[in-house]
Sequence to fold (114 residues):
Amino acid sequence: MMAADKEVDGPVEPVLPPKTLEDVLDGAIPGRQSSVKQYEKEGGMEDAIGDFNAIVAPGSVEAKEKEGVQVGNLPDGRIAIVRGSTQGSPTLEIQRADDHKSVIKIRYKTNKSE
Fold:
């Protein structure tokens, strides 16, 4: 016997990710500031992917052809990208939805310089 589907009365609330971008930035060290706000966090690629998965809207993640690059959407429509870096630091990048310009970059470093 199968369980009957439950009907929901009223509007259904959207499923939100477990963290906000502000949660991820908590404890990050501000870096060079220009038109892009840059931050450093301790960690590696696994940490960058964990933060990415914690802030993107469920079901919005798309793997790109370039290995290790994932793209997803924040609940407010901005775009989140997680990738490796030519500098050796994995990066979580936030872009504006309208023109895809970077506004925030968080670089994950295992050996932070003092």
